[in-house]
Amino acid sequence: xxxxxxxxxxxxxxxxxxxxxxxxxxxKDSAEAAHELADSLRESGYAVDxxxxxxxxxxxxxx
Length: 63
What we know:
This protein is an alpha+beta fold.
């Protein structure tokens, strides 16, 4: 893997919680997979935040 590939690689962290419970987290390698899981968790009653992590930063997304 080249330095460029490592620096531009993104991973998606899905943080989800139900009221009164401990937050849980999981990871996906693509925005599409993260979006699909986030939607499924929301349909099941979870509050969900999705973060994108790169070599340069981490930020909350609108997924």
